[in-house]
Design goal:
The chain folds into two domains: about 1-35 and about 160-240, RNA polymerase, RBP11-like subunit (Gyrase A, domain 2, 2-Layer Sandwich); about 40-155, DNA-directed RNA polymerase, insert domain (RNA Polymerase Alpha Subunit, Chain A, domain 2, Beta Complex), CATH 2.170.120. The protein is α+β, with helices and mostly antiparallel strands. α1 (about 20-35) crosses α6. It has helices spanning about 20-35, 55-65, 185-190, 210, 215-220, 250-270, and strands spanning about 1-10, 10-20, 40-50, 90-100, 105-110, 115, 130, 135-145, 160-170, 195, 205, 225-240. The chain is built from six helices and twelve strands. The chain binds zinc ion. Zinc ion binds near residues 77, 87, 89 and 90.
Length: about 280
């Protein structure tokens, strides 16, 4: 298996993987989507709520706030030595006590939550939770735990992940010499992959494989049949969008760790089977 990173920022990763079966590519996608544990608020005690929002709506909003996650320290409660009761190894508390002393309404933001672990805090401090009027008060006690998106989407480690085939376009421009249509493919390709700015011969843009989505419209419409669209076998372009709860290297390492655990589990269960 070969991996080449095309683009990497804090919130976006694009890479090409080759020598990989489609089943394995899909297994990687599904593990990253639903199996990697991250922190999210799961229990909320509302001691005072003068805001116009119901307690349940505030609790739901708190649950959806992405929290920075540390997989080295925290355990999933069901796997913790406390038996899931909640202890410093499997639970983080976030509290918020705000009274509006001003004469204007104020907004309570995710940054107003005080965490008992400075490493487990909202990814973005500017997510609005609720607006309160003057003299109103809100007191909240919330508990975040590790979970996976199999149980609830709030525990999703990435915002989106997809993969697609690696396009290969074979363009025989010698056929363009006799073409009377100048050049329908350059005009209609939705991704503008053919450059006809010189008005003589169309040229396939260099990095066409980055944007081509294999619609094959060029292949169908070219009057001279000069274009053949195909894709590379066992090569996929992955795109991952993250809300920064975990760095990408941790996500990828954890993915393969979980994958190997699953293979081991499968092998053990297979050996336990008694087939007559
Ligand atoms: Zn615990």
């Amino acid at each position: 298996m070969k991996l080449e990173v095309l683009e990497k920022t804090d919130s976006f990763l694009q890479f090409i993987v080759s020598d990989l079966s489609v089943e394995l590519a899909n297994a990687i996608r599904r593990i990253i989507f639903i199996e990697i544990p991250v922190m999210a608020i799961d229990e909320v005690i509302i001691l005072k709520n003068d805001s116009p929002l119901y307690d349940e709506i505030i609790a739901h909003r708190l649950g959806m706030i992405p929290l920075k996650t540390d997989l080295d320290i925290y355990k999933i409660p069901s796997e913790c030595s406390c038996g899931g009761y909640g202890c410093p190894l499997c639970q983080v508390s976030l509290t918020c006590e705000i009274t509006n002393d001003t004469n204007n309404p104020i907004v309570i933001y995710s940054g107003n939550l005080n965490s008992n672990d400075p490493n487990i805090v909202p990814v973005d401090p500017n997510i609005p939770i609720v607006k309160i009027n003057k003299n109103d008060k809100v007191i909240i006690e919330a508990y975040a735990i590790l979970g996976t998106a199999k149980d609830h989407v709030k525990w999703q480690a990435v915002s989106n992940i997809s993969y697609r085939f690696y396009p290969v376009i074979d363009f025989d421009d010698s056929k363009c010499a006799n073409c009377s249509d100048k050049c329908i493919v350059a005009r209609m390709c939705p991704k503008k992959l053919f450059d006809f700015s010189n008005k003589k011969a169309p040229q396939l843009v260099k990095d066409y494989w980055r944007t081509c989505d294999l619609c094959k419209a060029c292949e169908k419409e070219c009057p001279e049949k000069a274009i053949k669209v195909d894709w590379k076998d066992n090569t996929y372009m992955f795109s991952i969008e993250s809300d920064n709860v975990l760095p990408f290297d941790v996500i990828l390492n954890k993915t393969f760790e979980i994958f190997l655990e699953k293979i081991n589990e499968f092998t053990v269960k297979l050996e336990e089977l008694e087939i007559e």
